[in-house]
Request: fold
Amino acid sequence: MSNEEKKLNTEGAEEEIKKEDIPSDNQDAAAPEDEEKEMNASEEKEEDSQKTAEEPKKEESADEEAMDAKYLRLMADFQNYKRRAEKEKSEIYAYANEKLAVQLLDVIDNFERALQHETADENYIEGMKMIFKQLTGVLEKAGLEEINALGEDFDPNFHNAVMTEDNADYESGKVTEVMQKGYLLNKKVIRPSMVKVNN
Reply:
């Protein structure tokens, strides 16, 4: 082989090596596309992982809201129960003496009848008046009060009409006579007044 042929062969081999080292335009274009695909895939993975992380958070927040609502309802129910219990307790204290007061009303009626009788002994009358005043004072402290009826408009909540009459001294529907006194205990009617009403 001559020197010129050797030279030509080595030059050809060098050119082939150079051609292999230089990347083609197609290779350069393909590389960025691959990078974009990889980036898109990684972004999708991140979004999926975020979605899966958000789902339990949403469930947890919904559970917390339900628990808060349940707690608030329970607190409201407890407050209502507490108010009811306090009201019932105060009513028990207020009306605990009702039965005793109703029974003592007959004693008061008899006292009043006795005081209306005339007697020559003034000291006896004064003593009876003092005892009666003491008894009514004790009952008034317990919340007993007399219902005003004479000359008032007839009210079925406080008065029990047993008779009617035509009386020129009173307007129609007015109470003309009290036949038995009525009483309230702590603003509750324990005995209505027995009355006569004008037509």
User: Anything to note?
Assistant: The helical segments are 3-21, 25-95, 98-116, 122-141.
